[in-house]
């Protein structure tokens, strides 16, 4: 059995429709159980049975944070699942993930809200306002991004046979990358969780600091991996096409991923601005790319 057949067999197992459905059911079950357990911990803390100093056990609403974390895990799998099928859907899944991270952050910080007349003077209330507005705008931008990516995904079907052969080879390459990406992301997830857990146990003070940045656990490193994958896709795409507008589109997607990665290193409105800027940038890149596609004689 040659490498091509091995990659194809592994891809069929890890990225098949059956595996996708099975993963969805498992994640849904785990999410429901985790939500109930989180609510139980909150009750025990309020009753004084447990002593936990965390924002995530102050308010029952914060318990939604936990099932959202597992939903994010499934979104990560979907990102890898769609990688061989469509670059634009793969990029769109990155935007869905960062949107869910923002929404998850809302549930985490909602316990710190202070409902008074000094709303715009309180940092926690302001961050909540930024996140709510950001999630709403992101939802709209992702809709517009997918709406404008349809023509791009279907344009490949109109190509001549020799061009389609190039696409087949490129799809095989993307399958190989996706097959490698699955164990890499699993290992990264276990490492991130293990590192955060050991830091929390070893040094309580460092644990509290890490807990404040719990939204960044795994996903900071995750987007670093995505930048590497995006650059590889850009470089290998030259074998498929050297058209200027496609190079700019794929380069623009890399810039968006980098902006999302940078957003994890800052707080407050700058964080939200970087996330919105990343998605907005890709949306406009996609719109301009489609104009080139619709007017092939230009340039």
SSE blueprint:
Elements (H helix, E strand, L loop, with lengths): L2 H12 L2 H30 L18 H18 L4 H23 L13 H33 L5 H42 L1 H9 L6 H22 L3 H20 L4 H27 L5
Overview of this structure, please?
With 299 residues, the protein is mainly alpha-helical. It has one domain (3-110, 123-294). 79% of the residues lie in helices and 0% in strands. The chain contains ten helices and no strands. The chain has helices spanning 3-14, 17-46, 65-82, 87-109, 123-155, 161-202, 204-212, 219-240, 244-263, 268-294. The N and C termini lie far apart (46 Å).
Summarize the structure.
The chain is mostly helical. 79% of the residues lie in helices and 0% in strands.
Total count of domains: 1
Q: Give the DSSP E fraction (strand runs of 2 or more residues).
A: under 5%
- What oligomerization state is this entry in? single chain
Class derived from helix and strand content:
mainly alpha
